[in-house]
Design the sequence.
């Protein structure tokens, strides 16, 4: 018996892999965060839809497993990729008690990739992906990771840069970056990357980023010493002699 | 005038985003590494194909720019995502001298994501992507990044783990990881991720990985302290109470 963890990419059908589309169309039941269900569009037509709220991850995955065990074809959808801050791990953990159930992860384009493509090519060399959400990871661990990855002169893609309860986290992350990178370091952020007309992108310095107001639908990229701006785009050099 | 840097994903058409497919079909001329051109299949039919060898990145991008300036619709294809160790940066750098030319990056599923999906969900929390190729980045820089990211207890996805000239680099990378992570740390690697029948995946310990023989078509993932094996899959916990 299979249960699918499907990454739907940024949300626009243009960036949904054919395999993900196929799996969703083949399922009887789609489970997901209510905010993303509207991105499903025509794919959801005629399906049983089970939507839960933003902190309902546990409930969502348990429901998906029960539905799958009852014989339905079920997929749990995550925006971006299901394996990157998505539902895949929780499904594996909860499905462990049901050996008849096999979890398959269907990959999607994660926000780091869609945001980078809009900004230019800021992640062209070694980079780190770090979430500022301290709901599941202690802030001290996040802080240490930010510190060491900036020390390593890596470009850093930041997920969940802000929320109502932690509106100053991006500022804190920038202050940590400023221990190792100059204030003029080139950065950028994208809101609703590749999600139709709502997409907003901005290229700015690390200094400017530290006082920027962003929301939880924003993906932030802090460049490294090889990042510069070419024609308005954020580009990290790889080192080719041109 | 537009020039496209297109990521074709792992190589199987099932994982090629509709937007990438559309752009390729709309182009007159496809430029790429000869080894990947065969992955283009029917998409390449009727197109002018310009293939160059593995170290011909400069030549490849210069040719693409000349063809675009001559009025053709041109795309440069990279496997995975064009912005992650792909051709996007070089195109931006070389196109800087031609203000009439606009480079657009069309995102794709990079090897970190396709390999992670096959292995399970090893990149479910903060992670780093590091290439072991020292053609463009000095080994000391790579070594420092490996050291600091392992110290930060992040999962690490390794690109270009080996080649004929540097067959011991993965072993060196594992030795650096072993400074900070126990030998029993769960790891995995995938050869030809999601590229049809050729795909090979293995879950093993960091100790075992240090003596593994892999080639340049392999993507390696080193877990962190929250990575474990569930039903043969490599799963990094996010911290939900289940």
Sequence:
């Amino acid at each position: 018996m299979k249960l699918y963890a499907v990454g739907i990419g940024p949300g626009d059908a243009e960036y949904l892999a054919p395999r993900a589309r196929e799996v969703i169309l083949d399922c009887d039941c789609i489970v997901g965060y209510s905010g993303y269900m509207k991105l499903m569009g025509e794919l959801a037509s005629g399906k049983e839809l089970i939507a839960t709220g933003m902190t309902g991850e546990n409930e969502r995955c348990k429901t998906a497993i029960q539905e799958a065990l009852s014989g339905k074809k079920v997929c749990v959808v995550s925006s971006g990729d299901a394996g990157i801050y998505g539902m895949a791990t929780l499904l594996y953990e909860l499905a462990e008690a049901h050996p008849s159930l096999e979890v398959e992860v269907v990959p999607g384009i994660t926000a780091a990739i869609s945001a980078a493509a809009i900004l230019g090519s800021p992640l062209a060399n070694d980079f780190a992906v770090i979430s500022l959400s301290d709901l599941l990871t202690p802030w001290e661990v996040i802080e240490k990771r930010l510190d060491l990855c900036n020390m390593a002169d890596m470009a850093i893609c930041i997920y969940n840069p802000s929320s109502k309860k932690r509106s100053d986290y991006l500022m804190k992350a920038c202050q940590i970056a400023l221990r190792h990178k100059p204030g003029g370091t080139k950065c950028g952020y994208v809101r609703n990357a590749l999600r139709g007309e709502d997409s907003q992108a901005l290229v700015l310095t690390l200094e400017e980023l530290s006082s920027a107001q962003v929301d939880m639908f924003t993906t932030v990229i802090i460049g490294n010493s090889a990042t510069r701006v070419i024609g308005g785009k954020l580009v990290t050099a790889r080192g080719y002699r041109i």
Observations:
- Chain B touches chain A through 76 residues (CB under 8 Å).
- Helices of chain B lie at 18-26, 34-37, 57-69, 88-95, 111-119, 139-151, 169-177, 206-209.
